[in-house]
Design goal:
Blueprint (H helix, E strand, L loop, with lengths): L1 H18 L1 E8 L10 E4 L5 E3 L5 E6 L4 E6 L2 E7 L5 E4 L6 H4 L1 E4 L2 E4 L7 E5 L22 E4 L9 E4 L11 E4 L2 E3 L10 E7 L2 H4 L10 E6 L5 E15 L9 H14 L17 H5 L4 E13 L3 E13 L6 E14 L4 E14 L6 H5 L28 H6 L5 E19 L2 E20 L3 E4 L4 E4 L7 E24 L2 E24 L28 E22 L3 E12 L8 E12 L12 E15 L12 E9 L2 E8 L10 E14 L4 E13 L2 E5 L4 E5 L2 E16 L4 E11 L1 E6 L7 E3 L2 E3 L7 E4 L2 E4 L3 H6 L13 E3 L14 E4 L5 E11 L2 E11 L2 E4 L47 E3 L2 E12 L2 H4 L6 E15 L10 E2 L2 E2 L1 E2 L7 E10 L1
Parallel strand pairs: 1-7, 13-16, 49-55
Antiparallel strand pairs: 1-4, 2-3, 2-5, 5-6, 8-9, 10-15, 11-12, 13-14, 15-16, 17-18, 17-56, 18-19, 19-20, 20-21, 21-22, 22-23, 23-26, 24-25, 26-27, 27-28, 28-29, 29-30, 30-31, 31-34, 32-33, 34-35, 35-38, 36-37, 38-39, 38-40, 39-47, 41-42, 42-43, 43-46, 44-45, 47-48, 48-51, 49-50, 51-52, 52-56, ...
Subcellular location: Cell outer membrane
Pfam families: CarbopepD_reg_2 (PF13715), Plug (PF07715), TonB_dep_Rec_b-barrel (PF00593)
Main location: membrane
Length: 997
């Protein structure tokens, strides 16, 4: 019976044996990295296969049969199939730049056919970095792209492309698999195939009113042809604070505080017997070795007819303060089916669900006096001294521990799309897509009541003065539906190559939000410290008379018509032109539609006959573009349709009837802002493509700024104002192979940027936001205040200087500069004291591969910007802890000409001035990675196709001049670069592995 079964199985397998066997191998580049998407063709058997993400393949062929391996950007090779695991090396093609395909708006194109500035970031640049938001991993990689990080788990970075172009919005448009998005924090870095950063008018005009801030196109991974492939990668990292602000200890504090009291005419502090601790409040609340854990699993299978991909991810990220934890689960599902030779359909969904952390900050720990112990002998939290900040600062540890896990917030997001692509005739295809973005957030919170100990009175008092527990609850729903219908026609005849696009886009968005609060009954039982009770209708604990609810809602829609032509003649002369007409429901009918367009041209000089005999240049491309982009962002929705607000009341008989008036004067002529953008550039590849170099000059001028004018008696929106951003970008790389075992690469980029506000509304009109100002002739968000010209050293010095009307002052106080030269110091002497926009942004990378080992280092930095230190300045009248720099304060003539005397009771030294300005320049070792790829021959006897181990260090060293945790400080378009001392950027050391089965 057993022999019969063996014979039967042999007969079944005979056809497969006669036609070939499973030939396995890996296709790698010059540095030994796997090449995904390479095509393998068996010349005799006519079978084909495609490499997976790690370059592995399996093909049915005969031993000894010739296999042809090809990949865009590499020279094709032919090798004989062997029964052993094959390792096939492809060399980069001489004209790689001309064959490289990039994703552009509503399609793809060869880079050779483009006239604009588009940078492609490959998956390997971001996949193995421990960043919950994938965009963070691109910092320092792309010229013109500014990313300012926040160390808080789950918080978005500040992202700007080629400067700040508007006063209401800075972030670029994200396009994820075709759908417009506001961010990509919902994505898993391991599910990203590539990112394209679009920067100039030639590439952005196709996005019309959304293109002014730049566009980042994100493409999710798709399955490749071949057998089923399973990939798993995981890492664990440990986060710590590396640069801690220097604050006085208890002994130093006592010295400075008593001196301050003496300067204010007060006796030394008399309660040191009660407050004799030496507490470092940062150490009390920080979470040492906070962990960040990632798990990613993907399954893919592709055939000629169907391609399926599933990706799952999980991140658990602890904050640098105790009890902060961010959890994020992501998924990516897509499936494409070739129904017939002419029809292809597909569906895809990206999404995530997250548990958001209850975030705190370190601000109070920088201010709280060190002489207070966190708890008293009975374990009760101590209140800060009544005379030293108790009214302004709560016990930092009590704020973190006493309120731990009292805010439960969740966020869910689904990005889905379905498409059908029909090939109508040769070269002409139609693609229709329906895309949606559904985002939901909700949360419940609780404010507990607990006591703190007041040492001066030996009594207990409610923390923060809060005697009643209360509950808050909110729910927000956002939906976006998008429809795209596009015709694309590609035709090559003779030396002419052109691609035409014509399309229609419809977008609908709506938002609904509800929120409310309720307090316990006065004198009643507190609402339980149990999340089961944290709802607005909490019964019987919630007092209905204190219940308050509010709502917010809006919706809008737009339609767009678009067209584009990509043309090149003989690969030498290239022209790109784009047009988009956008219509928005948020503007009045008369101004609802606006047109945006661009035109670009390029000349590849290497293709000319007179360059044929030269051997230096592989590419020499001169390019330029000009166009009009749009910006639809404003401070409110429907700025052309003002809402009503309460006004004066009227009395009719015995009834008082409230009146309602428009919140501001209507202006039916409002339009969206327009950005005139142009650039000129050069792209070069030299020395057998080992050296690459690109440079560009860009200019972006925003006109008709959407400006809210508040004149007191009259308020209205109008189109007025102008902002200019201009600069140069430089990108260079060198790649070389020493021998078969050793290769290396060096790359870098730099961007110069000059931002200036040309006008705001009318001459002299200014917009203030704290120390930041929007005013003509200066960079947007400039810091505004007084110039410190030293410290008064004596009364004679005071009398010899220009008199000041800014307040009481004397020896030891700041000597403010008479900026306007009128012989007196007053508010007219305020001037621009700092620019938060860097003059230069740069990044560079070094990498080397030796056999199975690889090492890479990434650096990133900025130069020429200023930071406004918004902590440790004595900026309030309450006495707080001191920066250690205050130990160098003025104590008499000649002792200091920068640090003023200690006198926080006076506001004279607390005015916004150059004393608060710090150098924002820094250089950061952004990432170091050491990796080992196991040899394929070692793995061939296992079920593992590839295995990579890596050790990663992120932000280990920063060279900076600021006194806070980090020199990075984002913010709003007109108020950024302010260091509040709130949260550090962590250094992360992680270890991980990546395995493919």
């Amino acid at each position: 019976m057993r022999n019969f079964i063996f014979s039967f199985l042999a007969l079944l397998l005979l056809p497969a044996y006669m036609s070939g066997q499973a030939i396995k191998g890996k296709v790698v580049d010059g540095s030994g990295l796997g090449i995904p998407g390479a095509i393998i063709v068996a010349q005799e058997s006519k079978t084909t296969a495609e490499t997976d993400f790690d370059g592995n393949f399996t093909i049915n062929a005969k031993t000894g049969e010739i296999l042809k391996i090809s990949m865009l950007g590499f020279d094709a090779v032919s090798v004989a199939a062997t029964s052993d695991l094959m390792n096939i090396n492809l060399k980069e093609s001489q004209d790689t730049a001309l064959k490289e395909v990039v994703v552009i708006g509503y399609g793809t194109a060869k880079k050779r056919d483009l006239t604009g500035s588009i940078v492609k970031v490959q998956a390997k640049e971001i996949a193995d970095k421990p960043n919950p938001n994938p965009i963070v991993s691109v910092q320092g990689k792309v010229a013109g792209l500014s990313i300012v990080n926040s160390g808080k788990p789950g918080e978005d970075p500040d992202v700007r492309i080629r400067g700040t172009v508007s006063r209401y919005q800075t972030k670029p448009l994200y396009v994820v698999d075709g759908i417009f998005c506001d961010d990509i924090k919902f994505m898993n870095a391991s599910d990203i195939e590539s990112m394209e950063i679009l920067k100039d008018a030639s590439s952005l005009a196709i996005f019309g009113v959304r293109g002014a801030n730049g566009v980042i196109i994100v493409t999710s991974k798709r399955a490749k042809n071949g057998k089923t492939t399973v990939n798993y990668n995981t890492s664990i990292g440990f986060k710590n604070i590396t640069d801690t602000p220097s604050l006085t200890n208890a002994s130093q504090f006592r010295t400075l505080y008593d001196e301050q009291r003496s300067n204010q005419g007060l006796a030394p502090y008399s309660q040191y017997a009660l407050f004799n601790a030496d507490t470092n409040w940062i150490d009390q609340i920080k979470n040492d070795n906070a962990t960040i854990i990632t798990h990613n699993l993907s399954v893919s299978n592709g055939t000629d007819k169907n391609k399926f991909y599933l990706g799952l991810g999980y991140i658990e990220d602890q904050g640098l303060i105790d009890y902060e934890k961010y959890k994020k689960f992501t998924f990516n599902i897509n499936n494409e089916t070739q129904l017939t030779e002419s029809i292809k359909i597909g569906v895809a969904m990206n999404g995530y669900t997250s548990s958001l952390p209850q975030l705190h900050n370190f601000e109070s720990s920088l201010r709280a006096t060190p002489i207070v112990a966190p708890r008293n002998a009975e374990g009760i939290y101590n209140q800060l001294p009544l005379e030293i900040g108790a009214a302004q600062i709560g016990n930092p540890l009590a704020n973190v521990e006493g309120k731990q896990f009292t805010q439960l917030n969740e966020e869910t997001k689904y990005i889905a799309n379905a498409f059908a692509e029909i090939k109508i005739i040769e070269g002409l295809k139609f693609r229709g897509s329906y895309l949606s973005d559904n985002s939901y957030s909700k949360g419940r919170g609780y404010t507990p009541v607990f006591d703190v100990y007041v040492s001066e009175t030996d009594q207990l008092t409610p923390y923060g003065g809060n005697a009643l527990t209360n509950v808050n609850q909110f729910k927000n729903d956002f939906k976006r539906a998008q429809q795209d219908y596009n015709f694309t026609y590609n035709k090559v005849f003779g030396k002419h190559d052109f691609t035409l696009l014509a399309g229609y886009n419809r977008l609908e968005e709506n938002f609904e939000g509800l929120n409310g609060t309720v307090k316990q009954f006065v004198g009643g039982e507190p609402i339980p410290y149990d999340k089961r009770w944290w709802y607005l209708n909490v019964y019987p604990y919630g007092d209905p008379t204190t219940r308050f609810a509010n709502s917010d809602q809006w919706d809008r829609s737009s339609v767009s018509y678009l067209a584009r032509i990509l043309y090149n003649y003989d690969g030498k002369y290239i022209v790109n032109a784009s047009f988009r007409r956008d219509g928005s429901s948020e503007l009045s009918e008369e101004n609802r539609f606006q047109n945006f367009w661009s035109v670009g041209a390029a000349w590849d000089i290497v293709k000319e006959d007179f360059m044929k005999d030269q051997t230096i240049f592989n590419q020499l491309k001169v390019k330029g573009s000009y166009g009009i982009l749009g910006n639809q962002y404003s401070s409110i929705h429907y700025p052309a349709y003002p809402a009503y607000t309460t006004g004066s009341s009227a009395i009719f008989g015995e009834s008082v009837v409230p009146a309602y008036v428009l919140a501001y004067r209507n202006n039916p002529n409002l339009q969206w802002e327009t950005v005139t953008s142009y650039e000129a550039g050069l792209e070069m590849k030299l020395l057998d493509n080992r050296l690459s170099f690109e440079t560009a000059y860009f200019n972006k001028t925003t006109k008709d700024l959407l400006t809210f004018v508040d004149l007191g008696s009259e308020k209205f929106y109008t189109n007025a104002g102008e902002i200019e951003n201009k600069g140069f970008e430089f990108t260079a790389s060198w790649n070389d192979e020493i021998n078969d075992d050793l290769s290396y690469s060096i790359s870098g980029n730099a961007t110069t940027l000059k931002n200036v506000v040309k006008s705001v509304y009318e001459p002299g009109f200014q917009v203030f936001d704290g120390p930041s100002i929007l005013t003509a002739g200066s960079p947007i968000g400039s810091f505004y205040g007084y110039v410190v010209d030293g410290v008064y050293q004596s009364y004679a010095d005071v009398l010899a200087s220009a008199p000041s009307s800014l307040g009481d002052y004397g020896p030891g106080d700041f000597k403010y500069k008479d900026v306007n030269g009128d012989g007196k110091i007053n508010t007219d002497d305020r001037t621009i004291i700092g620019n938060p926009t860097p003059d230069v942004m740069y990044g560079f990378s070094l990498s080397a591969t030796y056999k199975q080992f690889s090492l890479s280092l990434d650096f990133q930095g900025v130069y020429g910007n200023e930071i406004y230190r918004d902590w440790g300045n004595g900026s309030t009248f309450a006495p707080f802890n001191y920066r250690t720099e205050r130990l160098d304060r003025w104590t008499g003539a000649g002792t200091s000409n920068w640090e003023p005397r200690l006198n926080d009771g006076s506001g004279y030294n607390k005015l916004a001035s150059t004393y608060m300005i710090e150098d924002g320049s820094y250089l950061r070792l952004r990432n170091v990675q050491l990796a080992y790829d196991f040899d394929s021959k070692f793995l061939e006897k296992t079920f593992i196709q590839s295995l990579r181990l890596f050790l990663n260090s992120q932000n280990p060293i920063t060279w900076a001049h600021n006194s806070g945790f980090t020199p990075e400080a984002g913010g709003s378009p007109i108020s950024f670069g302010k260091d509040t001392g709130g949260y550090p950027l962590p250094a992360i050391t992680s270890i991980g592995l990546n395995a493919t089965f």
